[in-house]
Amino acid sequence: VIAPSSLPLIHDAIFMGYPSSKNELVPRDRRNAFRIYSFRVKKSERLSVENSSLRTSICFDYPKMAANTSPGVQGRLHRTPNPNGISGGPVFSIDIDKRVFIVGVAIERDERQTILTATPMTRVIEYLNDISMLV
Amino acid sequence: LQLNLRNSEIDELLVPYRRYLVGFGRYPERLKKIPIEQRFDAIEIYGSGFFFRFHGVTFIITAKHVVEDAVKTDTCIISELGSFLLVPYMVIPFPSDDLALVNLSELSNYQEITRFEFLNLE
Predict the structure, then answer these.
(1) Residue A34 needs a FRET pair 20 to 30 A away by CA distance; which of A12, A18, B38, B113 works?
(2) Measured between alpha carbons, how far is residue B91 from residues A79, B36, B71, B98 in Å?
(3) Best mutation target, B5, B9, B11, B79, to test chain A (most A CBs within 10 A)
């Protein structure tokens, strides 16, 4: 995996995490609650610099979310997964050569669960460099 | 530049990264008296994170609000490789971002995860 030197505007970012709770799966598939989902996004925008942290908000494409479930689950969800549990999960981007970049960490969602915000990995690495003498 | 990958292609590209992912979950209160191995299927997941290594130290990174909840309860962290309990002193919060690190050098006392894989960010 590649850590980019700067956060690209994410047009093909992928959130990855455990967004579903058991309630969102039909009873016979309860064990699948631990499946990991990746969600494609349809739009992103760069927000203003806030506390030296550059953030990118990402709008979910719900129709694609419903289709983009893990193998074996597709078509068996009775509604789209709840992205609550995706907080803290990685955000990936894929370039034209199909290389996978890790670009951020999901940190929050809005009330309607249509927008997630990510902190870029560059910010994480900056902080790690600051504390690397302490750990 | 917009990629035009099918969702199935994206899933395929991300398969290798699944093993780095962890989930933060808790057991419903009503199941606390049941043996832990029987409770596993009932974990309610409320957050995610992932393993990575930087300068020879292995961490889990996640959102600060996820670990703030986690250390108040008996939160179990699970991955495809196992599970362990999170304790407060393992957590390093970021000062100004909603991020926190879990330092896995503290993991030796919480051995339910005996091996794990990590993204190398060095």
Answers:
(1) A12
(2) 35, 24, 9, 13
(3) B11
Tell which residue, A28, A53, A69, A35, has the closest CA to residue A108. A53
ipTM of the complex: 0.81
Q: What are phi and psi of B68, to 5 degrees?
A: -60, -40
- Look at phi and psi of residue B52 and say left if phi exceeds 0, alpha if psi is from -120 to 50, else beta: beta
Q: Rounded to 5 degrees, what angle do the CA atoms A105, A106, A110 make?
A: 160
- Give the tokens for residue B25: 């979950």
| CA separation for the pair B41, B104 (Å, rounded) | 25
Asked if B11's CB is within 8 angstroms of A70's CB, the reply is yes
Q: How far is CA B27 from CA A131, B34, B36, B85, B110, in A?
A: 33, 10, 9, 12, 18
Q: Do A17 and B46 touch (CB under 8 A)?
A: no
> Distance between CA atoms of A23 and B31, rounded to whole angstroms?
16
| Contact residues, chain B, for A122 at CB < 8 Å | none
Tens place of pLDDT per residue across chain B (122 aa): 455 666 667 767 777 887 788 878 776 666 666 665 555 555 667 788 888 888 888 888 999 988 887 777 666 666 655 566 677 777 889 888 889 998 877 665 544 555 567 888 77
Question: Distances from the Cα of A36 to the Cαs of A10, A127, B86, in angstroms?
Answer: 21, 28, 21
Phi, psi angles (nearest 5°) of residue B45? -85, 130
Is the CB of residue B93 less than 8 Å away from at least one CB of chain A? no
Judging contacts by C-beta atoms under 8 Å, the chain B residues touching residue A33 are 45
| Closest CB to B14 among A31, A38, A127 | A38
